[in-house]
């Protein structure tokens, strides 16, 4: 029997963000007698997933933040860490373009398997020192020999990080479809928990309340619906835009119709309570929320900035962000269609965690032989 291989996973934190949730989906389903994740994070505060990781047998290490002015400190800390932990033959980095920094050092330390994983796109312009460093890191990742394996959640994200025509493997942001299967009983329970009146139609938004996710647009779409007293809107997630959203809801006269649930431990049941999901993001690497909503059979209205690959079960309409009325006009028809049945076709199966985890384990197997 093969020994258990411990893999060092690099993430910024262990909160319930999209990247962390994707990693945990794989971690829960892996053969942990063969593969075990340990996590190196750049935050001192405890993340939401840490207790579960420890229960699953993982270890958690902490290191200082990756600021440009800490380069020499980080370099020393990371090289010392690898010297103290020679057991890591595989490092799997989810730090986007910042992966260049630790993977370059890992090469120097003699770690043979250095995996970089692309999850997003960042259409930033180099207008300050931090942005210049991020651009430099991105192009640094494209140097020959820095990375031994390039992965991406989508073709879109991979081409942004590694360059058009680059060789990389798409590893889907897979989920457990059975967990998201619609439940009428679950819908009733969540609606009661949130204080949603019986018969009300519910508009949902799931994700970090940040500029990238464009939650203010979703709120304006909701506020302009006809007969809006018959509707409710639920924001699932937290972020720096929450105060602005609450102020805007009051200004638009819909504060009593909008619910902020904050972060939740099990987002699956919230999809059951929704009748339509809005996803007006300015950019996405894939759009994991659309995949999850698809598993619940929930119709989605997404911006055309969300990659088409997110439309796994063909439940998503892609709309331009220039006209709120187009979104409002589309709302009633998609709600009227109700939920879709989810058939496990070949395209859907690629996003089912049971299938996807075997693909990742095979990649690890190839790297250790």
Beta-strand segment tally: 13
Helicity level, as a percent range? 25-40%
Order of SSEs: EHEHEHEHEHEHEHHEHEHEHEHEEHHH
Mean pLDDT: 92
Distance between the termini: 15 Å
Number of domains: 2
User: What's the CATH first level of the largest domain?
Assistant: Alpha Beta
Our estimate of the beta-strand percent is 15-25%
Number of helices: 15
Structural commentary:
The protein is of the alpha/beta class. It folds into 2 domains: 5-174 and 352-367, Glycogen Phosphorylase B (Rossmann fold, 3-Layer(aba) Sandwich); 177-347, 3-Layer(aba) Sandwich (Rossmann fold), CATH 3.40.50. It is built from 15 helices and 13 strands. It has helices spanning 18-29, 50-55, 71-84, 100-108, 129-141, 155-162, 177-180, 184-194, 215-223, 242-252, 268-273, 288-295, 324-337, 346-349, 353-367, and strands at 5-10, 35-41, 60-62, 90-93, 113-118, 149-152, 169-170, 201-206, 231-236, 258-262, 276-279, 300-303, 316-319. Strands 3-2-1-4-5-6-7 form a 7-stranded parallel β-sheet, sandwiched between helices. Strand 1, helix 1 (18-29) and strand 2 form a beta-alpha-beta unit. The longest helix is centred in the last third of the chain and has 15 residues, at 353-367. The mean pLDDT is 92.
Produce the secondary structure layout.
Layout: E1 5-10, H1 18-29, E2 35-41, H2 50-55, E3 60-62, H3 71-84, E4 90-93, H4 100-108, E5 113-118, H5 129-141, E6 149-152, H6 155-162, E7 169-170, H7 177-180, H8 184-194, E8 201-206, H9 215-223, E9 231-236, H10 242-252, E10 258-262, H11 268-273, E11 276-279, H12 288-295, E12 300-303, E13 316-319, H13 324-337, H14 346-349, H15 353-367
Parallel strand pairs: 1-2, 1-4, 2-3, 4-5, 5-6, 6-7, 8-9, 8-11, 9-10, 11-12, 12-13
């Amino acid at each position: 029997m093969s020994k258990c291989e411990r893999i060092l996973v690099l993430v910024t934190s262990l909160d319930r963000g999209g990247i962390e949730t994707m990693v945990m989906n794989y971690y829960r389903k892996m053969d942990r007698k063969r593969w075990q994740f340990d996590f190196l994070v750049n935050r001192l505060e405890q993340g939401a997933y840490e207790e579960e990781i420890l229960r699953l047998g993982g270890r958690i290490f902490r290191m200082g933040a990756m600021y440009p002015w800490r380069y020499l400190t980080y370099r020393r800390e990371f090289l010392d860490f690898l010297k103290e932990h020679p057991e890591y033959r595989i490092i799997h980095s989810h730090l986007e373009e910042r992966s260049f920094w630790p993977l370059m050092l890992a090469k120097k330390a003699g770690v043979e398997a250095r995996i970089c994983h692309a999850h997003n796109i960042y259409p930033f312009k180099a207008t300050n020192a931090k942005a210049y460093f991020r651009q430099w890191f991105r192009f640094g990742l494209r140097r020959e020999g820095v990375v031994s394996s390039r992965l991406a959640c989508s073709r879109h994200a991979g081409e942004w990080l590694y360059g058009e025509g680059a060789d990389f493997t798409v590893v889907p942001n897979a989920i457990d479809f059975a967990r998201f299967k619609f439940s009428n009983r679950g819908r009733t329970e969540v609606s009661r928990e949130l204080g949603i009146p019986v018969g009300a139609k519910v508009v949902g938004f799931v994700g970090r309340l940040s500029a990238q996710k464009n939650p203010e647009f979703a709120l304006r779409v909701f506020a302009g619906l006809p007969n809006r007293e018959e509707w409710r809107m639920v924001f699932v997630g937290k972020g720096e835009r929450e105060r602005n959203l609450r102020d805007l809801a009051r200004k638009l006269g819909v504060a009593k119709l909008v619910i902020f649930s904050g972060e939740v431990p099990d987002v699956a049941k919230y999809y059951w309570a929704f009748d339509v999901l809005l996803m007006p993001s300015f950019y996405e690497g894939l759009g994991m929320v659309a995949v999850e909503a698809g598993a619940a059979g929930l119709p989605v209205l997404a911006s055309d900035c969300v990659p088409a690959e997110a439309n796994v079960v063909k439940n998503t309409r892609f709309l331009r962000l220039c006209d709120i009325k187009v979104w409002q006009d589309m709302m009633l028809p998609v709600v009227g269609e109700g939920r879709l049945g989810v058939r496990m076709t070949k395209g859907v199966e690629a996003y089912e965690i049971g299938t996807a985890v075997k693909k990742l384990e095979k990649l690890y197997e190839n790297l250790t032989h």
